[in-house]
Design goal:
The complex is a heterodimer of chains A (109) and B (297). In chain A, 33% of the residues lie in helices and 24% in strands. With 109 residues, chain A is an alpha+beta fold. Chain A has a four-stranded mixed sheet. In chain A, strand 1, helix 1 and strand 2 form a beta-alpha-beta unit. With 297 residues, chain B is an alpha+beta fold. Chain B folds into three domains: 67 residues, no CATH class; 113 residues, Jelly Rolls (Sandwich); 80 residues, Arc Repressor Mutant, subunit A (Orthogonal Bundle), CATH 1.10.10. In chain B, the strands form four sheets. A four-stranded antiparallel sheet of chain B has the order 4-8-6-7. A three-stranded antiparallel sheet of chain B has the order 3-9-5. In chain B, strand 6 and strand 7 form a beta hairpin. In chain B, helix 8 packs across helix 10, helix 8 packs across helix 11 and helix 9 crosses helix 10. The longest helix of chain B is centred in the C-terminal third of the chain and has 27 residues. Chain B is globular. Classes of the chains: A alpha+beta (109), B alpha+beta (297). The interface between A and B is medium-sized, with 26 and 29 residues.
Chain lengths: 109, 297
């Protein structure tokens, strides 16, 4: 899957663009639940609502994971802004998630 | 049921199969890549198996998801393994088409040559699949319990039964009309995958039955058959008549009487007026022809 179906949009201030994220999980399995909680906390703290997050349960939609080339869950996929990036695991390492999202440098200084 | 879960060979076999699939998919991950690192750190719940088009859960995730699924009020525990493999949404969509029915011992669900109107997912009943050669005694070629279904030929596109399906041990099953089942198989990749595995295990069991009935003694075969029934029924006690056992093993009733007396003398079972109880499982396994392992997978 490319950015197809993603909805990158402009914020009201005109130039900052929303981050489009897909999180692939396996139901409420322990690492998946943790990844959802970690990501939601990161989005709340650093993205301030300027994001489009879709959580995809691969147990219900395995074909979506395969179409996106996902190998394991949980996997976070950043589709927009380009370049795309992925983080694998329960997202407990905030700096890696921020780096993938593209705001690592500002957040960790 | 009085034994530990390890005695339920079908469940053990299913878990073993999942573990084997998991290991083989993990081997395909890039060495030192982010996925492999996350696996080693214990941060992964599942891997996607592209060759089998399915998702394989890690044991911890499997454990965690089971009670969670059963504990939700909108999702009743599913007592048949094939249906339990469906996703929650798929199962909920299917629920209106699944009718719980009580099946009595001896009831015939399918006759050879007749169209299949319903498929049956046993919950706590056991159904015998019998070949009925012309002018000969019937002989059992398969045994279906909570881990399987009656009417698998529909999944292969054949809507006529080639066997007689007769209820061996009465109990509950969920039945579904033929057209709905056919549609579900087309729509659900998960169910198709589970059915493929199940049909393969049915085929393996049928091959083993052919070997067993050609080479093994009646007492050994009876011991195997009782162990298989016990695993399918999830109980050490069940009701089974000598006539039906004779029909199942394709021998005369007198031969069953002799074999059962032999097993009782060795204090492996008690058997009185059809009420059978396994007293010594290990002993019965030793007395069996060891086809039990293959037949129960």
């Amino acid at each position: 899957m490319s950015a197809q179906g993603a909805k990158p949009g402009r914020r009201t201030d005109g130039y900052a663009t929303a981050v489009v994220l897909r999180l692939y999980v396996a139901g409420n399995a322990p690492n998946s639940a943790q990844a959802v909680a970690n990501l939601e906390a990161i989005c709340r703290e650093y993205l301030n609502g300027a994001h489009d997050l879709e959580i995809i349960d691969v147990l219900e939609h395995p074909q979506r994971a395969m179409a996106a080339g996902i190998l394991v869950t949980p996997t976070l996929s950043k589709l927009y802004p380009l370049p795309t990036a992925q983080v694998v695991g329960n997202l407990s390492d905030t700096s890696r998630v921020l780096l993938a999202i593209g705001i690592g440098s500002q957040a960790h200084e | 049921m009085s034994d530990s879960s390890s005695s339920y060979a079908p469940e053990v076999a299913r878990t073993k199969r999942q573990d084997e699939q998991l290991s083989s998919v993990l081997l395909r991950l890039v060495k030192g890549g982010p996925e492999q690192q996350a696996v080693e750190a214990g941060e992964i719940d599942a891997v996607i198996d592209y060759s089998g088009s399915n998702v394989i859960l890690f044991p911890a995730a499997r454990q965690a998801l089971r009670p969670a699924a059963a504990g939700e009020s909108a999702y009743e525990p599913v007592a048949n393994s094939l249906l339990a493999a469906l996703t929650r949404r798929e199962y909920q969509q299917l629920t209106p088409s699944l009718e719980p029915v009580t099946l009595t011992s001896g009831a015939v669900l399918h006759e050879p040559g007749e169209p299949i109107r319903f498929v049956y997912f046993p919950v706590d009943c056991v159904v015998s699949l019998l070949a009925t050669p012309k002018g000969r005694r019937t002989v059992e070629v398969g045994l279906v319990g909570f881990d399987g279904m009656v009417g698998t030929s529909l999944a292969l596109g054949v809507n006529v039964s080639s066997l007689r399906a007769r209820v061996q041990i009465g109990g509950t099953a969920l039945r579904m009309p033929q057209a709905r089942f056919t549609r579900t198989v087309q729509e659900s990749q998960t169910l198709r995958h589970e059915l493929n595995l199940y049909i393969y295990s049915e085929l393996t069991a049928a091959r083993q039955t052919a070997v067993c009935s050609t080479f093994h003694q009646i007492e050994e075969r009876l011991a195997s058959r009782l162990l298989t029934t016990s695993a399918r029924a999830r109980s050490d006690r069940f009701y089974v008549t000598q006539e039906s056992l004779a029909g199942v093993l394709g021998v005369r009733r007198e031969s069953i009487t002799q074999a059962a007396i032999g097993l009782q003398r060795r204090r492996l079972i008690t058997y009185h007026r059809g009420n059978l109880r396994i007293l010594n499982r290990q002993g019965l396994e030793a007395a069996s022809c060891h086809c039990y392992g293959q037949l129960s997978v």
